[in-house]
Amino acid sequence: HLRRESQAAPAGARSHPGRPLDHRAAPARAGRSGEAAPGWEAPVSVRRLRVGLIGLGRLGRVYARDLATRIREARLVAVCDPLDEVVSGVADDFEVAGRHTLAAELIRDPNVDAVVIVTPTRTHKDLALLCAAAEKPAFCEKPAALTLGDALAMKAAVEQTGAFLQMGFMRRFDPGYVAARARLSSGQRRTSARSS
Which of 103, 108, 123, 168 is the most buried (most CB within 10 A)? Predict the structure, then answer.
């Protein structure tokens, strides 16, 4: 297993003009050859999941940072955005070789094992269908789609191909949400203290 020896953030944050993302809180990233970053111990046989990221807006840049520097089992190998200068900036910041302006190219990239979709909701269905057709596992930010029909099309594609699709509903793991769900499931109800 991997373990963190120190929780201290590295000194010397990098910034990129026009990019509000603060990289200071990120631990040092692994080098290009795949060795563990300083402070991380990893067995030699660990194969890191090669991830492609589609969408490099505000939240996409957070995902880029996390995939490149905070998730030991993942390696950010490709990024995609319609704007070439955004692709270049993020790819340069995190030493990413795969640079795409078309999502279909990233999905077909043989160096990408799995795809993270952080694009506007109106694009989720088409991107999920492309990932399913390519049998590439995908993680898609919420909401799934703008219409029930699009969400059902995503579900059908996954069922037909057997591809993996995870929706990003991380709040389900938040302790407050877990407690509220348990309380509601057990039939306990709390009424509001306010009166109308």
Answer: 103
Closest among 74, 102, 69 to 87, alpha carbons compared: 102
Sign of the alpha-carbon dihedral angle for 146, 152, 153, 159:
positive
Look at residue 54 and give its three-state secondary structure.
Answer: strand
Q: Do 163 and 131 touch, CB atoms closer than 8 A?
A: yes
* 20 and 58 Cβ atoms separated by less than 8 Å: yes
Crossing angle between the packed helical segments 58-69 and 84-94, to the nearest 10 degrees: 30
Cβ-count burial of 146 within 10 angstroms (0-12 exposed, 13-18 middle, 19+ buried)? Answer: middle
The set of residues, in sequence order, having a beta carbon less than 8 Å from that of 187 and lying 6+ positions away, is none
At 159, list the tokens.
């069922």
Nearest to 129 by CA among 156, 105, 111, 148: 156
> How far is it, in rounded angstroms, from Cα 132 to Cα 130?
5
Q: What angle do CA 91, 92, 97 make, to 5 degrees?
A: 50
- 145 pLDDT higher than 50: yes
Res. 9 pLDDT band, cuts 50 70 90: very low
Q: Contact 130/153 with Cβ under 8 angstroms?
A: no
Helix axes 148-161, 124-133, angle to 10 degrees: 10
